[in-house]
């Protein structure tokens, strides 16, 4: 190892939304030089049984950026230790380690984007494609007093899925939320969207 | 007379093609021997057993595939297979597959799809794909009996509105009601088994038209 | 196992195994020996014993196999780490289930587990670990099969 002359990166933190996790840190300033950063992680298994083992991040070993997408590194719902160090030529900083281990079950889940349409009398929903870990709980109801709310599990996102065969002249409303089985958590519901079905004149 | 293992190049791209547990070993001829009369010999191995076994129907064959469905029919076991090329007195070294696990690797074929229509609805009846069987007289085993969580992704395409939507179903009948009369709808069905991803084999697209609306016909008269 | 609901990201574990299958199984040159030996142990387990068997096999992998395997290739190390940490999480989930006494261990599961450990002990430790890693698909398929009722909960 080069002698640790370079200061270690500071202000390490993780931002996580919808199971996308990004590690960020402050720059190590060296005028007119390009500083590289390396990120390593250690799952709970490594910290318990192989504490000497640190694994290079998939995308950021090394990187010149000040953030690292660690989504492909954090692949289990256990605490992960994360550390960053700076490198400039043969100079290498000490490791800076995230103060508290990160667990993906703390990710922020936001309501899914959705597109509610109809094909004749058929209510169709197309949900945002958030990846294979996401399921969607879709609630829909006919807008009338005392309406009963129906719930359907929809998977995957990204393709139009049939929800209900609607009755002529009625209005149907839909809202959805995500469910991530791997962490056992839901997002909030999205805003409801409604569609009105064309009325059908009664036969003679 | 055993052949002499010489510098003859090995067959290449040796893999199992498995659909509904029909397991075909296939390979490419050795490179650089176009026009030569090459024959092949196949052996297989049941993981955990003792020795390589011959497949007599695939000894000195000129085709580049061999049906090992019988030999690999216990889908909860794992297997290897290997092929060598023979040209005259010379033969190549063996070319070997990776470990083949039918239960996880077989592709699930599409169900049979029967459609019937009336003015405003289409009835879809699905018949689960069948596991490969040695001879037609044997009783059929549905792939559903092997994969109890088998389900179907039914895609419907309205050719008039140019809209497509899907539905995931587990039962074998589905009625699409309140459709538009006198309209062609196309249906395509794919079998799905949760677990490791498998190559998809959707059914042939089938298109049917809903009948003309009898009421508007009466009004015209 | 159906009652020990496991909210497990099986998809991710299977994806990680597919990333190591070819390389790890190629290192296993003893094709005539198996550790999980489908016919003797795993496939004779009744649903009643599935939870206990899962717990025992998770412990087998977490406490022995992953420790005995020294992986130098960073890409393989990442995948194996992903599986190891996922198994650790499954253990914790089953532990909660055990505390509610839904994960009862009968003699059948204990015997089947001992066969697996005996198979492991008969091999040189590195070879045993490589072989066990290469047989993860047998264990994962068995979990999938015993877990099917709940995967769409």
UniProtKB/TrEMBL annotation, chain C:
Coiled coil: none
Keyword field contains Secreted: yes
Broad class of where this protein is predominantly found: secreted
Subcellular location: Secreted
Keywords attached to this entry: Cytokine, Disulfide bond, Secreted, Signal
Family affiliation: Belongs to the IL-10 family.
Protein name per UniProt: Interleukin family protein
Source organism of the structure: Sus scrofa
């Amino acid at each position: 190892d080069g002698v640790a002359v370079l200061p270690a990166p500071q202000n390490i933190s993780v931002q996580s939304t919808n199971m996308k996790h990004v590690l960020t840190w402050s720059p190590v300033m060296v005028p007119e030089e390009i500083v590289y950063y390396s990120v390593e992680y250690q799952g709970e298994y490594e910290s318990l049984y192989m504490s000497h083992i640190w694994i290079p991040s998939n995308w950021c070993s090394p990187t010149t950026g000040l953030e690292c997408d660690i989504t492909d590194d954090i692949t289990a719902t256990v605490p992960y230790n994360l550390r960053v160090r700076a490198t400039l030529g043969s100079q290498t900083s000490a490791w800076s380690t995230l103060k508290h281990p990160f667990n993906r079950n703390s990710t922020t889940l936001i309501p899914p984007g959705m597109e509610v349409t109809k094909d004749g009398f058929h209510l169709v929903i197309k949900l945002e494609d958030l990846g294979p870990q996401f399921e969607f709980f879709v609630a829909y109801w006919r807008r009338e007093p005392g309406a009963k709310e129906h719930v359907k599990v929809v998977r995957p996102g990204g393709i139009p899925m049939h929800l209900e065969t609607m009755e002529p002249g009625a209005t149907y409303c839909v809202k959805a939320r995500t469910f991530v089985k791997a962490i056992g958590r839901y997002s909030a519901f999205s805003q409801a969207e409604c569609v009105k079905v064309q009325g059908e004149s009664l036969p003679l | 007379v055993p052949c002499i293992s010489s510098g003859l190049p090995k067959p290449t791209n040796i893999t199992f093609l498995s659909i509904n547990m029909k397991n075909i070993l296939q390979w490419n001829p050795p490179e650089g021997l176009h026009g030569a009369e090459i024959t092949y010999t196949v052996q297989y191995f049941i993981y955990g057993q003792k020795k390589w076994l011959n497949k007599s129907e695939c000894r000195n064959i000129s085709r580049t595939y061999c049906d090992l469905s019988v030999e690999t029919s216990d889908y909860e076991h794992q297997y290897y297979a290997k092929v060598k090329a023979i040209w005259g007195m010379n033969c190549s070294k063996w070319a070997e597959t990776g470990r083949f696990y039918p239960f996880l690797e077989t592709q699930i074929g599409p169900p049979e799809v029967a459609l019937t229509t009336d003015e405003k609805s289409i009835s879809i009846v699905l018949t689960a794909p069948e596991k490969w069987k040695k001879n037609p007289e044997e009783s059929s085993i549905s792939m559903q009996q092997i994969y109890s969580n088998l389900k179907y992704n039914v895609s419907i395409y309205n050719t008039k509105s140019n809209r497509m939507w899907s539905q995931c179903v587990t039962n074998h009948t589905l009625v699409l009601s309140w459709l538009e009369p006198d309209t062609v709808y196309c249906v395509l069905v794919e079998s799905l088994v949760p677990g490791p991803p498998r190559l998809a084999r959707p059914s042939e697209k089938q298109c049917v038209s809903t009948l003309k609306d009898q009421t508007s016909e009466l009004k015209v008269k | 196992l159906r009652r020990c609901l496991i909210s497990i990201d099986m998809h991710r574990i299977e994806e990680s195994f597919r990333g190591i299958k070819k390389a790890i199984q190629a290192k296993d040159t003893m094709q005539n020996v198996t550790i999980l030996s489908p016919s003797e142990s795993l496939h004779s387990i009744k649903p009643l014993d599935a939870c206990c068997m899962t717990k025992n096999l998770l412990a087998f992998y977490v406490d022995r196999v992953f420790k005995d395997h020294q992986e130098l290739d960073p890409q393989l190390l990442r995948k194996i780490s992903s599986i190891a940490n996922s198994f650790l999480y499954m253990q914790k989930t089953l532990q909660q289930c055990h505390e509610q006494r839904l994960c009862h261990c009968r003699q059948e599961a204990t015997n089947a587990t001992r066969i697996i450990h005996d198979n492991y002990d008969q091999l040189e430790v590195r070879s045993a670990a490589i072989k066990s890693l290469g047989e993860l698909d047998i264990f994962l398929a068995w979990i999938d099969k015993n877990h099917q009722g709940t995967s769409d909960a």
